[in-house]
Amino acid sequence: MIVSMRLHATKEEIDHVCERIREFGYHVHSIQGEARVVIGVIGVGDVTACLESLEATPGVESAVRISAPYKFVSREFRKERSVIGVNGLEIGGGEFIVTAGPCSVESESQIMETAQAVAEAGAHMLRGGAFKPRTSPYDFQGLELEGLKLLEKAKRATGLAIVTEVMSDRDVEMVAEHADMLQIGARNMQNFALLKSLGRCGRPVLLKRGMSSTIKELLMSAEYVVAHGNSSVILCERGIRTFETATRNTCDIAAIPVLNELTHLPVLLDPSHAAGRRSIVPALARAGAAAGADGLLIEVHPCPEKAVSDGAQSLTVPQFRDLMRQLKPYIALWREMRTAAASARA
Ligand code: PEP
Ligand code: MN
User: Among 114, 131, 183, which residue has the most ligand 1 atoms within 8 Å of its CB, making it the best to mutate?
Assistant: First the structure.
């Protein structure tokens, strides 16, 4: 069950509601929000009686039963889509958000050149890894703090907000100081210690789907972050591992409409890691917009053949410019779909 308190409910009212919850044999699992408090309730008991009683308790706006195992992130909990602010941008709102940049931050000239180019081409945010989760321990592991500082420099030059990966709970505070949004990579989607530490990081989180994870597991991981105090979570489909070897991963395009049904959280598509090679990235990117993603995460490198990671799937700058042009009619369609969905809900 989820109990939403009225705006500015008093501490006494909140304490009283918690007491009533316990009297019915349930546990108060988490309490979130400052102006508007939301109480997560778990346990076994007489749901109907408890819901009825809570709805009649002072300070309570609504009490609802959530049947999904993920509570706060479910559509049952919140009918309207969540709109998440990132440095003045809105993800999940009326604009299709394109985040572009290299897989890894490699040098000052590389990140500055890429940032300028993607900004001019119309990207809204800059991506770039300073901490890299590499399959081989002998591969480039990222510039770490130096990389974060270079990203900040690129932000100052272009105004683009920064999204970058954090791999360990030890680094969350440091990465949050430099980045606008923290990326959790596919390999860490179920690193629960890391997910818990994001609860109080004060930054939106971009949670990528694990390469062998189900949609339900992705939502349970998002629930970890939200249940620990951070409701600003954006999901990312980046391809899953299947028997198919023609692409690096299999782009689960259906995950986008499925997630749009199951959760109110925004969903991005990363066609670069799904494809593994640049020739098919534009087609998947267009499909993402058509399927109703809130935006894209795209790898772009000024000279992909020299990239230290993921060069084969990185678009060149002219290819990215061309993709932005190709996306225009899809984004127009996307806007129409969004407006129609919003008026159907109203
Ligand atoms: C990345 O975005 O460069 C990355 C490592 O992605 P993923 O975690 O999806 O493999
Ligand atoms: Mn990459």
Answer: 183
